[in-house]
Amino acid sequence: MILGRTIAAALCAGAAGLGVFALAAGDAWAFGGKKAASTDEVPETTAGTTGSAPAIGRASDEAALKSWCADLDAEVNRLGWTLPPCDWRRWKLGGTSVRGRPLVYAEFGNAQAEENTTLIFSMVHPDEITPLYVALQLVQWLGEHPQSLTEARVIVAPLVNPDGFYAERRTRTNANGVDVNRNFGTADWSREALQKWRKRFGGNPRRYPGTGPNSEPETRFQVRLIEEVQPHKVLSVHSPLNFMDYDGPMSIALKQFPKEYVHKCLELRSRVKAQHGGFFPGSLGNYAGQERGIPTLTLELPTADARHAHGYWERFKEGISTVIRFEVPAYVFREQGGDGGSVN
Ligand SMILES: [Zn+2]
Questions:
Q1: 2-18 and 259-269 helices cross at what angle (nearest 10)?
Q2: Rounded CA gap, 25 and 8, in Å?
Q3: For the chain, which domains are there?
Q4: Fewest CB within 10 angstroms: 181, 240, 289, 330, which?
Q5: Is residue 252 within 8 Å of residue 137, measured between CB atoms?
Q6: What is the DSSP string of 22-49?
Q7: CA–CA separation, 220 vs 47, rounded Å?
Q8: Is 19 helix (H, G, I), strand (E, B) or coil?
């Protein structure tokens, strides 16, 4: 049965790629190599467009980045997390949120690495909390180990939706009340997004897809990053559903992977709780994975409890390093179509 086989293969691809459950915490990361110069920065254009001049990499906005860091440090403190102070120099501006907060990202590794670019998002849903810690620790680790990234480029946007995070009461949605993971301009958005939201979710405001496709600055920020860095794979970190999901080319199938990869995949598949929940207009998985053929993994951490965040980092860091190291075979990008589904 094609559907079943594809789903199994897809989930297995996710499982093996993340390798999260079989790998011991504390295993050394070893990408091997040296860091190259970062890419030139380009000026930001007006928000609201996703055209030829992406707003990624505005060279300097020291005040905004310093304020972003100050807010982050204060909140990290309140959450009881022990993390190094935020260094504004590390971050680049990629846009501003509905409330005018910086939308930031950091870049690591070899900017000239043409074969292996990984784009990592976290906190698309700001009330999920634990993904922030994992992303910030990842950024810290990548910053401290530049020699480990020779043939890989990694871009991390740790707080995609800051307004909901800094709201008095944290929200899943952004400041416009939109679920940013239902707002991507997928082909079916106009026809189905609002209809499915009403029918399937009873109009639950936590999942409101917005007034139109790509209407939100936090969505456009992600779209611009995808367009600008042209990732070979995307990882989005969420919580608390405790599973992994895969969207992307069907050609990531067992038979087409190298033998050792297949073995690892089979070994891991039985340990992974995986779920498959159908398709949603406007989700990142549909937008990047299905429609653009970029292998897109969603890692759902087990809880949103800040006290467990450090444990999740320890548990998942090796898996995330596996994702970063993994080179998606070139044939994958020659294929059309995709499979998988977004439940997050
Ligand atoms: Zn989520």
A1: 90
A2: 26
A3: 25-253+278-340 (3.40.630.10)
A4: 330
A5: no
A6: TSPTTPPP---S---PPPPP-----TT-
A7: 8
A8: coil
CA distances from 102 to 158, 167, 237, 239, 331 (A): 12, 15, 20, 23, 37
Structure tokens, 126: 């700001």
Q: How far is the CA of 255 from the centre of ligand 1 (A)?
A: 31
Contact 306, 80 (CB under 8 A): yes
Asked if 326 and 16 touch (Cβ cutoff 8 Å), the reply is: no
Distance from Cα 36 to the centre of ligand 1, integer Å: 33
Q: How far is the CA of 310 from the centre of ligand 1 (A)?
A: 19
Chain segment 142-187, per-residue pLDDT in tens = 999 888 888 899 999 999 999 999 999 999 999 999 999 999 999 9
Q: What is the pTM of this model?
A: 0.78
CA–centroid distance, 42 to ligand 1, in Å, is 30
CA 190 to each of CA 42, 44, 173, 197, 281: distance values in angstroms, whole numbers, following the listed order? 32, 28, 20, 12, 9
